[in-house]
Amino acid sequence: MRAMHYVTYGGPLALVDLPQPVAGLRQVVVRVHTASVNPVDWKMASGKLRLLMPQRLPCVPLADVAGEIVQIGADAGDFQPSMRVHARIAGHNGGACAEFAVVGVDVLAPMPADMSFEQAAGLPLAGLTALQGLRDEAGLPLSGATERVLVVGASGGVGHLAVQIAVAAGARVTGVCSAANTAMVTGLGAHHVIDYRAPNAFAGLEPFDIILDCVGGSPSPWLSMLVAGGRFASTMPGPAVIGRSLLNALSSKRVRPVMLKSNRADLQILGQLAAAGRLKVIVDSRFALDQLAAAWERSKSGRAAGKILINVN
Questions:
Q1: CA 300 centroid distance within chain
Q2: Which of 144, 245, 291, 312 shows its CA 20 to 30 Å from the CA of 253?
Q3: Which residues contact 203 (CB under 8 A, 6 or more apart)?
Q4: Which residues, 6+ apart, have CB-to-CB distance to 24 below 8 Å?
Q5: CA 216 from centre of chain
Q6: Which of 110, 137, 136, 6 is nearest to 62 (CA)?
Q7: Angle 159-169/124-132 helices, nearest 10 degrees?
Q8: Residues of the chain with pLDDT > 90: what percent?
Q9: Is the separation of the CB atoms in 284 and 118 below 8 Å?
Q10: Backbone angles phi, psi at 32, to 5 degrees
Q11: pLDDT tens-digit profile of 161-204?
């Protein structure tokens, strides 16, 4: 099978021919139609995350996958060949940037009937992160919500899905993005959009119950924008977020890091929202399998609005 891989941390990407993988216990082999790029992919490849997320080298990158099952291993449950499925492959070695990939059934979900492979590939990491950040770390109920929610980085891969999930829950949502993406974020249902480059962009705002930061950095500038008892969750937690979260007992305002947990149940929740017309993936750009390096450069630019996809088959 054709696959992209790298041999060393920081080394070049190469298109190679590898043996087709075989499904093991509670695994399936998926013929990959589409994979999606996330910043963590090129960060792991660079070696910067090797202490936290070590990889087995050589490595076939990417972990968001959508395709059709071609082989099932023992104890694969209800999964059968020809089923259309998507997943965030567990572990640190991915494998989705190839014509075939092995996926554990615990993270695998059937695609909704009318969902395209592109939509299905764009959902897992970004959608799961947004869902778990809002629901689990920030305490947003998925229905009947009355909270005021601020999404920082509302036009990005995670942020644009977080806006839609919060709106679907009933929250009053404000998105933060550049002026160029205001129309996009408004079109996703945000009740108000802030151009972060505008002078005094955040002056005069009523405080929020929840702030979901999809950009990263210190929580300190945002805490004054929370109500007493408000919650700040970061999908890109660094030392400042981790350190401040250890002091939650000393403040009414909680700071929580969002740590992705790949699982079938949450992916099915995202699928249900999509099937109901409440959640869609905005595609920033599409690349072929052998154009992964260019796709990573697009991700590194920080200018992507929505998801970056790799169309494999």
A1: 15
A2: 144
A3: none
A4: 73, 74, 102
A5: 14
A6: 6
A7: 50
A8: 95
A9: no
A10: -75, 125
A11: 999 999 999 999 999 999 999 999 999 999 999 999 999 989 88
Instruction: Report the distance separating Cα 23 and Cα 277, nearest Å.
Output: 34
Q: Say if residue 217 is exposed, middle or buried (CB neighbours under 10 Å; 0-12, 13-18, 19+).
A: middle
Single out the residue of 180, 130, 128 nearest to residue 152, CA to CA: 130
Instruction: Specify whether the CB–CB gap between 264 and 246 falls below 8 A.
Output: no
Distances (CA, A) of 115 to 67, 119, 156, 259: 11, 6, 21, 27
Q: Is the pTM of this model over 0.85?
A: yes
- Report the C-alpha gap between 101 and 253 in whole angstroms: 43
- In the predicted model, is pLDDT for residue 51 greater than 90? no
Residue 210 near residue 150, CB atoms below 8 Å: yes
For residue 4, give both structure tokens.
Answer: 């992209």
The residue type found at 240 is A
Burial grade of 199 (CB within 10 A; 0-12, 13-18, 19 or more): exposed
- Please check whether residue 107 is in contact with residue 270, taking contact to mean a CB–CB distance below 8 angstroms: no
Residue-level length of the chain: 313
List the one residue out of 18, 30, 25 whose CA is nearest residue 68.
Answer: 30
**Is the pLDDT confidence value at 295 over 90?**
yes
CB atoms within 10 A of CB 15: 14
Query: Comparing C-alpha atoms, which of 239, 233, 271 is closest to residue 255?
Result: 233
